[in-house]
């Protein structure tokens, strides 16, 4: 007990507990110390609400509540809401409706909803949204959360509720003949959740497991608030690692003296550049050989952004570590700063990487990391011969992932003296390989695994804490837990690459004959992923309209800002924004219908993707064609669902200060990285006829564990629940490159499908022997049985019993891997409806509708969750999300409040319609969906703003003042 | 005009709604005595959690915690009871005597309310916010006040120009006139969300829109 601690009696979940704590301690910390791990920390600054608990039945933020304030009141955490061991109706409803993706916000959402329904058993949808507005969710856009609360309220009122399902329709030959449910026209507006709508061609019907809205495997444990996240595990002798960050955006450490910090009782290690080996590397979790430059070291004497690493401390508590940081004496030589990428390229700009041991920077003196020029056809000739040339410059923001679980890493020595890294990572296998040389351990002495992940969106594709945390365990011999603060998530982790996109198109006879794109990608202080992001952007941006003559030039540029890296959308979001808005501008200038203009030019099924060879993943790519999909189908359905043509015409006539607008974009993404991404899986049959499915694939909360089991179940003729899934552990699962590049459904899914097919062969063979048949290939696997043509059958459990114990005993097991030279693009038409106040410049988005072709929809609820969450991130990219820097290079909005992500009570209607197409390379016809869903929001919103006001918002985010100024100058 | 029981959060009397400074904002929000416009300042960007945690007294000590709410109190002509005297809240907020406020009373009868704001998104913290309250008698403005956020060196302030509406009818022309004067009066600080010029322009636009909403409420 320290001096100011005292014994405080708390009533937690109807149990009286005595704690020794400072009365000023945060209730959040006290509850987590008492192992109420459902209580989460997302910010610690009062902005996110994921720390919510109930105090006398009312929701409060436990990070803003002192423990002394809670004494004498009834405290309820999620652990306390189950009734006699049974799930609360809210928990049940959240599980069923798909309200839980990563689940990090779920305990707070559930508690807030419970308090609300206790007060108001029959609420309206708007009231639910208002009640939940204090808890942020970055994954779901609240659609299924609201549906979950509505469903639970009905159950609690004693009403019967139907099973949660999607709407399945047959896709007619002509998309204009579709049977569109009236609700999808949103005749009365509103934001009431709609079920996902899936159109399937007749020839793709007949699946038994795939295509069904199966509940996510992890939903129940997340609904119960089980301690499943990286930071939920504790060791008795665990130390806390805390990072000391640079206050300067550009500086050199002239001297650093950690002696006072080291002498502080409770401090066990202080790492600085002086006592850590200098090993050059790049922090991006990508397959080797990773593109140069390797411009990072664990700790450096040069600091290149405010938030850069200065020192790391391991201590008995976070408080002691922070005190130690205050005792570290650093003398800085402050250097000139450049935060604007275009200025960074000028003669005389501060040189950010002037060190001699970094190879592969294209032009260090001008901060240009990479300069790429790729061209096909005769671009200049096509421009010279064009009837019209259009060009525009577009700018996109430095958007932060804002996953609600910060980066967390826990490291320890196991009983075999192997280092275990339990991390909130999307790339366990890359982390193992990357950490090894930095800490001087052979790869085989390291195990990396990922428990549940509280959102990643690409940010956890980087090595951020794992190297430092591991070094602290090596130095101290003790388990060490490190966690970024929310401020550090902004200042020290990663973001989307801001881009300047200069686009030119040549038009002849209504056709785009050439496209010329120049981009500047602001990679911040390090080049990690800069090359691949910009090349992926060029590939998608140029493939959309697939000009026969195309040029892509890009400069990847250093600035004194935190590194940019992978973020859902990965360059495609930025470049397609420029291309799509320019296509709209061109149609407008030509006086032609924008739908017709795009329709005449977009890529069609069977077309070669012309830039696919020139623009691979940081190197030459592979020849590819578009083998499935039809933008026409998607657009026609969206036009019908939004009444686009009538509104588009009508809105042009408006004159008042409050104006409506409608717009659309078409967009595409990839499915994995061609010729590079590889995944593997193992399936084993067990006693009782159930299977283990082990795979390296990483479920970031998207439901990939579940959908991969559905694929395996479809092949093996058993329900998905017959699989015990274990994923992403370098010791216990086969390899997978990790969750990025929209590869999980496609690459990992194919690995699972191939594995399941081999197991199915073994099952058939054994069953044939059991049945005395000599043609195993004639047996059908269905309904947990192996059925012969003559109707005889054995069950999967009987096959397991026989093969393991009775006849020709052997283990039915297989492993397979998959790599592909094709990365089939999923396609989408994105619609947006807005209201603009022309007096203030404020844009309010009223509806976002995505009509998506992601091939076969493996699970409509999880797929819709991707669409809804992705559109909400695109909404932020278009309207508000930007990391803003002052002239000294310090970010001014390092809290979630001033940064601002979507809240439940401002979400527009977010609707998902799927049109299935059979992708020949995909597992059972599937393509990806995870990133496609962010790409089209911004150009559709900008198109709608133009429809309302007649001005083009070329720079994002579209802050009110920016639009207001354009309207003033119109 | 007093609160008998200190545990009671609020009471209505004599056309006033009186609030105990120790009351949490959620109990005030749910009291049913606030106009929809004033109630709205405790929703949107202001969550249920924050209402539960925040007392009226805290918002008076730190108006930045709930600037739109405090703006509403100022526009509505709230009176603070300090040492037996009723003093306009706006004066109390300029002094350091907030601790001794016994109750805050808000005129609630015959008030027309209006508000307008600009923000990046519907429930983002407003860049500029205006709230107006007008009391009419026989077609003549008896009292009019507007308070704004986002346009002063501190978080909240009254726009004096609006008081000039008193004594005449409430018409679009007079509203435009006083709103234009508000732009002269404000003293904004710029930040990444809005320049001085923009905030000044919005002070005028939003005051006009808020007063127009009062006028619409009259019709
Ligand atoms: S952790 Fe408490 S509000 Fe974010
Ligand atoms: S499910 Fe809400 S933050 Fe992930």
Report on this model:
The complex is a heterodimer of chains A (970) and B (219). Chain A has 970 residues and is α+β, with helices and mostly antiparallel strands. Chain A has 5 domains: 6-80, Beta-grasp domain (Ubiquitin-like (UB roll), Roll), CATH 3.10.20; 230-335 and 401-491, Aldehyde Oxidoreductase, domain 3, CATH 3.90.1170; 365-389 and 510-604, Aldehyde oxidase/xanthine dehydrogenase, molybdopterin binding domain (Aldehyde Oxidoreductase, domain 4), CATH 3.30.365; 632-670 and 824-970, Aldehyde oxidase/xanthine dehydrogenase, molybdopterin binding domain (Aldehyde Oxidoreductase, domain 4, 2-Layer Sandwich), CATH 3.30.365; 678-819, Aldehyde Oxidoreductase, domain 4 (2-Layer Sandwich). In chain A, the strands form 7 sheets. In chain A, strands 10-12-8-19-16-17-18 form a 7-stranded mixed beta sheet, sandwiched between helices. A 6-stranded mixed beta sheet of chain A has the order 6-7-33-32-31-23, with helices on both faces. Chain A has a 5-stranded mixed beta sheet with strand order 2-1-5-3-4. In chain A, a hairpin with a 2-residue loop joins β1 (6-12) and β2 (15-21). Chain A is globular, with a radius of gyration of 28 Å. Chain A starts with 5 loop residues before the first strand and ends with a helix. Chain B is an alpha+beta fold and 219 residues long. Chain B folds into 2 domains: 10-107, Uridine Diphospho-n-acetylenolpyruvylglucosamine Reductase, domain 3 (2-Layer Sandwich); 111-216, 2-Layer Sandwich (Enolase-like, domain 1). Chain B contains 8 helices and 9 strands. Chain B has helices at residues 25-29, 36-40, 48-53, 56-61, 67-75, 89-94, 172-185, 196-218; strands spanning 10-13, 16-19, 79-82, 85-88, 101-107, 111-118, 128-137, 140-149, 156-159. In chain B, the strands form 2 sheets. Chain B has a 5-stranded antiparallel beta sheet with strand order 1-2-5-3-4. Chain B has a 4-stranded antiparallel beta sheet with strand order 6-7-8-9. In chain B, α7 (172-185) runs antiparallel to α8 (196-218). Chain B is globular and about 40 Å long. The chains are: A alpha+beta (970), B alpha+beta (219). Chain A binds chain B through residues 46, 49, 52, 55, 58-61, 64-65, 112, 116, 130-131, 133-134, 837, 839-842, 844, 879-880, 884, 892-893, 897-898, 900, 902-903, 905-906, 957, 959-961, 964-965, and chain B through 26, 43-44, 47-50, 52-53, 118-125, 127, 191-195, 198, 201-202, 205-206, 209.
């Amino acid at each position: 007990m320290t001096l100011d601690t005292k014994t405080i009696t708390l009533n937690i979940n109807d149990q009286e507990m005595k704690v020794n704590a400072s009365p000023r301690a945060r209730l959040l910390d006290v509850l987590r110390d008492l192992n109420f791990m459902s209580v989460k920390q997302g910010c610690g600054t009062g902005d996110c609400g994921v720390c919510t608990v109930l105090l006398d039945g009312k929701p409060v933020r436990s990070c803003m509540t002192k423990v002394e304030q809670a004494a004498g009141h009834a405290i309820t955490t999620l652990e306390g809401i189950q009734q006699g061991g049974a799930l609360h109706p809210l928990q049940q409803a959240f599980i069923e409706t798909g309200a839980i993706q990563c689940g990090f916000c779920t305990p707070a959402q559930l508690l807030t909803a419970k308090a609300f329904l206790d007060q108001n058993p029959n609420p309206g949808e708007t009231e639910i949204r208002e009640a939940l507005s204090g808890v942020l969710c970055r994954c779901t856009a609240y659609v299924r959360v609201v549906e979950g609360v509505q469903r639970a309220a009905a159950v609690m009122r004693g009403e019967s509720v139907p099973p949660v399902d999607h709407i399945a329709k047959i896709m007619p030959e002509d998309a204009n003949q579709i049977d569109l449910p009236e609700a999808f026209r949103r005749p009365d507006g509103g934001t009431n959740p709609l079920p996902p709508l899936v159109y399937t061609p007749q020839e793709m019907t007949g699946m038994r497991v795939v295509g069904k809205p199966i509940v996510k495997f992890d939903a129940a444990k997340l609904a119960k608030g089980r301690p499943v996240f990286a930071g939920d595990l504790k060791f008795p002798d665990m130390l806390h690692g805390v990072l000391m960050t640079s206050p300067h955006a550009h500086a050199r450490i002239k001297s650093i003296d950690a002696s006072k910090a080291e002498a502080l009782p409770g401090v066990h290690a202080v790492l600085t550049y002086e006592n850590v080996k200098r090993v050059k590397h790049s922090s991006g979790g990508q397959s080797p050989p990773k593109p140069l430059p390797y411009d990072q070291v664990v700790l450096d004497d040069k600091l290149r952004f405010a938030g850069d690493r200065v020192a790391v401390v391991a201590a008995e508590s976070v408080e002691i570590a922070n005190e130690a940081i205050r005792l570290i004496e650093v003398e800085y030589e402050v250097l000139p700063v450049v935060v604007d990428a275009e200025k960074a390229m000028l003669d005389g700009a501060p040189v950010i990487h002037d060190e001699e041991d970094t190879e592969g920077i294209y032009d260090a003196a001008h901060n240009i990391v990479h300069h790429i020029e790729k061209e096909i056809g005769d671009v200049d000739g096509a421009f010279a011969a064009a009837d019209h040339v259009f060009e525009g410059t577009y700018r996109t923001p430095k958007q932060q992932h804002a996953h609600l679980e910060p980066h967390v890493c826990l490291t320890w020595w196991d009983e075999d003296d192997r280092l275990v890294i339990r991390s909130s990572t999307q790339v366990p296998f890359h982390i193992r390989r990357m950490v090894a040389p930095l800490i001087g351990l052979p790869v085989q002495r390291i195990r990396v695994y990922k428990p549940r992940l509280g959102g990643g969106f690409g940010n956890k594709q980087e090595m951020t804490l794992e190297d430092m945390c591991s070094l602290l365990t090596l130095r101290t011999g003790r388990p060490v837990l490190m966690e970024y603060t929310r401020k550090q998530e902004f200042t020290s982790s990663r973001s989307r690459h801001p881009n300047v996109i200069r686009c030119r198109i040549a038009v002849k006879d209504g056709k785009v004959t050439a496209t010329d794109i120049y981009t500047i990608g602001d990679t911040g202080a390090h080049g990690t992923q800069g090359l691949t992001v910009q090349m992926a952007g060029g590939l998608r941006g140029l493939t959309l309209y697939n000009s026969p003559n195309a040029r892509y030039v890009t400069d990847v540029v250093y600035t004194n800002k935190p590194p940019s890296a992978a973020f859902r959308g990965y360059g495609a979001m930025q470049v397609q924004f420029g291309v799509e808005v320019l296509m709209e501008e061109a149609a407008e200038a030509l006086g032609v219908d924008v739908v017709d203009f795009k329709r005449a030019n977009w890529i069609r099924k069977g077309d070669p993707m012309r830039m696919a060879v020139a623009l691979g993943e940081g190197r030459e790519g592979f020849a590819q064609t578009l083998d499935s999909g039809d933008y026409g189908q998607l657009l026609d359905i969206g036009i019908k669902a939004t009444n686009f043509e009538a509104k588009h015409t009508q809105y042009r006539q408006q004159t008042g200060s409050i104006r409506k607008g409608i717009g659309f974009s078409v967009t595409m993404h990839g499915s994995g990285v061609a010729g590079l991404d590889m995944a593997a899986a193992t399936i084993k049959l067990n006693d009782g006829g159930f299977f283990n499915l082990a795979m390296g694939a990483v479920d970031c909360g998207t439901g990939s564990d579940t959908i991969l089991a559905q694929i395996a179940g479809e092949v093996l003729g058993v329900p998905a629940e017959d699989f015990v899934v274990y994923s992403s552990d370098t010791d216990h699962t086969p390899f997978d490159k990790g969750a990025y590049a929209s590869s999980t459904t496609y690459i990992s899914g194919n690995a699972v499908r191939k594995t399941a097919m081999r197991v199915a062969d073994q099952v058939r063979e054994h069953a044939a022997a059991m049945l005395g048949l000599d043609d195993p290939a004639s047996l059908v696997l269905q309904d947990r049985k192996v059925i012969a043509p003559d109707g005889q059958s054995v069950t999967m459990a009987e096959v397991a019993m026989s093969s393991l114990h009775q006849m020709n005993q052997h283990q039915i097991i297989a492993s397979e891997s998959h790599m592909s030279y094709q990365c089939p693009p999923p396609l989408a038409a994105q619609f947006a409806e807005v209201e603009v106040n022309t007096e203030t410049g404020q844009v309010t988005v009223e509806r976002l509708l995505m009509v998506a072709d992601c091939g076969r929809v493996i699970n409509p609820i999880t797929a819709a969750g991707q669409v809804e969450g992705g559109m909400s991130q695109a909404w932020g990219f278009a309207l508000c999300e930007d990391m803003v820097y002052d002239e000294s290079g310090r970010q001014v909005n390092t809290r979630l409040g001033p940064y601002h992500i979507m809240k439940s009570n401002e979400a527009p209607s977010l609707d998902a319609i799927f049109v299935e197409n059979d992708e020949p390379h995909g597992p059972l016809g599937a393509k990806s969906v995870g990133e496609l869903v962010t790409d089209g929001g911004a150009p559709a919103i900008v198109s709608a703003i133009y429809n309302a006001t007649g001005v083009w918002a070329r720079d994002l985010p579209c802050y009110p003042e920016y639009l207001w100024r354009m309207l003033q100058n119109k | 005009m007093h609160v008998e029981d200190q545990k009671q959060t609020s009471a209505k009397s004599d056309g006033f709604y009186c609030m105990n400074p120790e009351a949490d904002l959620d109990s005030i929000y749910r009291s049913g005595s606030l106009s929809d416009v004033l109630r709205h300042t405790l929703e949107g960007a202001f969550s249920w959690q924050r209402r539960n945690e925040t007392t009226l007294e805290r918002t008076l000590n730190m108006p930045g915690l709930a600037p739109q709410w405090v703006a509403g109190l100022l526009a509505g002509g709230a009176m603070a009871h300090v040492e037996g005297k009723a003093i306009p809240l706006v004066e109390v907020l300029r002094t350091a005597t907030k601790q001794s406020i016994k109750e805050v009373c808000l005129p609630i009868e015959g008030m027309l309310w209006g508000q307008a704001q600009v923000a990046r998104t519907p429930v983002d913290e407003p860049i500029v916010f205006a709230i107006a309250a007008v009391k009419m008698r026989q077609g003549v403005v008896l009292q009019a006040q507007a308070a704004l956020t986002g346009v002063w060196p501190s978080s909240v302030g009254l726009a004096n120009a609006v008081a000039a509406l008193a004594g005449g009818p409430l018409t679009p022309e007079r509203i435009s006139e006083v709103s234009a004067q508000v732009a002269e009066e404000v003293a904004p600080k710029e930040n990444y969300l809005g320049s001085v010029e923009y905030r000044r322009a919005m002070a005028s636009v939003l005051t006009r829109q808020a007063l127009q909403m009062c006028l619409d409420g009259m019709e």
